[in-house]
UniProtKB/TrEMBL annotation:
GO terms for molecular function: ABC-type sulfate transporter activity. This is Sulfate transport system permease protein CysW. It comes from Roseateles asaccharophilus. It is found in: Cell inner membrane. The chain crosses the membrane at residues 32-52, 72-99, 111-132, 152-172, 258-278. PANTHER family: SULFATE TRANSPORT SYSTEM PERMEASE PROTEIN (PTHR30406), SULFATE TRANSPORT SYSTEM PERMEASE PROTEIN CYSW (PTHR30406:SF1). GO terms for cellular component: plasma membrane. InterPro entries: CysW_permease, MetI-like, MetI-like_sf, Sulph_transpt2. The complex is composed of two ATP-binding proteins (CysA), two transmembrane proteins (CysT and CysW) and a solute-binding protein (CysP). Keywords: Cell inner membrane, Cell membrane, Membrane, Sulfate transport, Transmembrane, Transmembrane helix, Transport.
Length: 295
């Protein structure tokens, strides 16, 4: 055995520095790289180029006319309204749920985690149908809502509810593993020193989770503005009233108004690009912050 050890120690220094699992032939690396780039170009770059090319095919005048058309303006406003309501609600819920799960032990913790993951396992269309079953004219609460002149389905409240449902896991799912990895030591130390729960959260917890929180909010906002399935079921497709941007694109395309459809779709494509840029910036800032805190 000593001979084996001495032979290993006496081997050339560079012989054992590389990982055998990564010593592929050059043609293997280049093939994998080419495949990755091909999929990137085929499924990301080309669709984006196609959207903007079709949107501008008939010139800027047609493009701008499609965006300032009354139904398009109404769809933009409704999309922004749904996002402005659902994102702050999910922000509050996500932070509260992550705080409870990561920092406290209680009965039903696993059940709460399961409920948070529910929108990931349920089709958005099914979620929309559930709201119709609950609040529709023939639903469980439909007669009472009609008697009190309250409209939820085929109105803005239904769209907001559907948007909240499909987006509420994003903030919580970003924060739970982050807060679990950070542990409870700093919060417990702050509590021992006399800090209140709010002071502990504001001065200890929030600075540690701010980049993950911002990342979750960005993903939540992107999903809220691009949601189609659940919103399509509860909206009723009333032009100028209950159509969001994705629904407006569908209507324009079905009516063979291709230039207008792609013009409106380009707004969603721009949102996706902005989301990617912000995602990369936040990941860079978060990694830099981790490096700065390391001893």
């Amino acid at each position: 055995m000593s001979g084996a050890v001495s032979s290993t120690l006496g081997a050339p220094k560079g012989r054992y520095q590389s990982n055998p699992a990564t010593r592929e032939a050059p043609w293997v690396r280049y093939t994998l790289l080419a495949l990755g780039l091909s999929f990137f170009v085929l499924f990301l770059i080309l669709p984006l180029v196609a959207v903007f090319t079709e949107a501008l095919r008939k010139g800027w005048d047609t493009y701008l006319a499609a965006l300032i058309e009354p139904d398009a303006v109404s769809a933009i406003k409704l999309t922004l309204l749904a996002a402005l309501i659902s994102v702050p609600l999910n922000l509050v819920f996500g932070v509260s749920a992550a705080w409870a799960i990561a920092k406290h032990d209680f009965r039903g913790k696993q059940l709460l985690i399961t409920f948070i993951d529910l929108p990931f396992s349920v089709s958005p269309v099914v979620a929309g149908l559930i709201y119709v079953l609950l609040f529709g004219a023939q639903g469980w609460f439909g007669p009472w809502l009609q008697a009190n002149d309250v409209k939820i389905i085929f109105a803005v409240p239904g769209i907001v509810l559907a948007t909240v449902f499909v987006t509420f896991p994003f903030v919580a799912r970003e924060l739970i593993p982050l807060m679990q990895a950070q542990g409870r030591d700093e919060e417990e130390a702050a509590t021992v020193l006399g800090a209140s729960g709010w002071q502990t959260f504001w001065h200890v917890t929030l600075p540690n989770i701010k980049w993950g929180l911002l990342y979750g909010v960005i993903l939540c906002n992107a999903r809220a503005m691009g949601e189609f399935g659940a919103v399509s079921v509860v909206s009723g497709h009333i032009r100028g009233q209950t159509n969001t941007l994705p629904l407006h694109v569908e209507i324009l395309y079905n009516e063979y108004q291709f230039a207008a459809a792609f013009a409106v779709a380009s707004l969603l494509a721009l949102l996706a690009l902005v989301t990617l840029v912000l995602k990369q910036f936040i990941e860079w800032r978060a990694s830099r912050a981790r490096l700065e805190t390391q001893p």
